[in-house]
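Students often ask why we bother encoding 3D structure as a string. The short answer is that it lets us treat folding as translation between two languages. Here is a chain of 38 residues written in the first language.
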Amino acid sequence: MIDLHLHLDGSLTPQDLLRLSRLTGVALPTQQEEELRA
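And here it is in the second language, the structure alphabet:
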């Protein structure tokens, strides 16, 4: 069996991250897409 894994921080777009934070109620340090890209 091969165990593959994926690091989410490199595969989520800022839009996805904002959407997930709203759905789960997790506060992010910013709500600005440009700041999340940095």
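Translate back mentally: Residues 10-37 form one domain. Keep this in mind for the problem set.
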